[in-house]
Amino acid sequence: MKAIVLNDYGGVEQLRFEDAPKPEPGFDDVVIRTRATGVNHCDTDVRRGLFGVMQRFPHVMGVDAAGEIETIGPGVTEFKPGDRVAPHFMLSCGVCKNCQRGVENICLKPDILGVTTWGTYAQFVKVRQNNVVRLPDGLSFDEAVAAQVPFATAWEGLISVAKLTVGETVLINAAGSGIGSAAIQVAKLAGARVIATVGSDEKFAKARELGADEVINYSTTDVPETVMCLTNGLGVEVALDMVGGARLLDAIAALAQGGRLASVGAHGGEKVLIDMIEFFRKHISLHGCGRSTKSIVSEVLALVADGKLKPVIFKRFPLAKASEAHQLMESRNFFGRMVLQPWGTE
Fold first, then answer.
1. What is the CATH number assigned to the segment(s) 2-134+312-341?
2. E strand or H helix at 246, and its extent?
3. 182, 161 in Cβ contact below 8 A?
4. Quick one: average pLDDT of 220-232?
């Protein structure tokens, strides 16, 4: 099979399009013919050796995909060849106490697709049957892969963790990202008022098209001060941050009394100095999350198939041009998702 193979950490020149051994299923494994693969910030971290988990080379990255089952192992009972599926990036053990409770996103003995195992930057990928989600009828592979991680992450952060409800106001940082563009739609579906932040004025219109009620350029504007003006000095009940650093501090300062903040990423700064006095005086809470369950993935994919949520695809690349996709990801000059096409040539 063809794959993007990483033999060392470094720049985009390390992403080599070459032949790799096609995976063979073990007893309870399925091998998926990959039809679409997502490009995520964590992929650039893996490539650069910054993820925090070291890889064994050669390595194939990629945490999400959509396709159909090619072959199955003799112990597979839930799926058959031809089934349209997506692998779940949290490769849970299926037997620990958290998996048994249905919270496999905090599995005690997990692997991570594309991080600790070979991933989806390839024409085929292998996972155990307990780490597979069925795709709804009528949902394209590109839509499925563009929706899976962003919408599931946004749903977990806003709905499952922060408990966003009708009539509340939410601040969504980095609304031009895959998760940010998904979060605007999830928040509007929940009946919330959305204040979105973006890094350039060019992204204002696109954020509003998705449903943002107010848009702030965090590069040129004092976000907390503007949020307070927009909320009559009260602040927002909920904030979603996937950036960290200064953007996380903006979100904390913009919270109302009793506000809830869900943090799902920190590419803009992993270590942040926080004034804890503000936390207990304002009775605010900070929740770390970002690894959704398979049930959440199934729920958001069903909403996409029903037309209630719409993934934003910024650009498609053939797998051979994954380096160009990484360059675009790191430039931040995009709005939405990049999708790799493992069988594409254009």
1. 3.90.180.10
2. helix 245-254
3. no
4. 97
Pairwise CA distance, residues 130 & 66, whole Å: 16
Best CA proximity match to 262, nearest among 207, 183, 344: 183
Tens digits of residue pLDDT in 9-56:
999 999 999 999 999 999 999 999 999 999 999 999 999 999 989 999
The CATH number assigned to the domain with range 151-288 reads 3.90.180.10
One DSSP character per residue, 165-232 reads -TT-EEEES-TTSHHHHHHHHHHHHTT-EEEEEESSGGGHHHHHHHT-SEEEETTTS-HHHHHHHHTT
Which pLDDT tens digit goes with each residue over 316-330? 999 999 999 999 999
Q: For residues 269-286, b (16+ Cβ closer than 10 Å) or e, as one string?
A: eeeeeeeeeeeeebebeb
User: What are the structure tokens assigned to 215, written together?
Assistant: 């848009």
Phi-psi region of 223 (alpha: psi -120 to 50; beta: other; left: phi over 0): alpha
Give the residue range(s) of CATH 3.90.180.10 domains in the chain: 2-134+312-341, 151-288
DSSP letter for 314, please.
E
End-to-end CA distance of the chain: 18
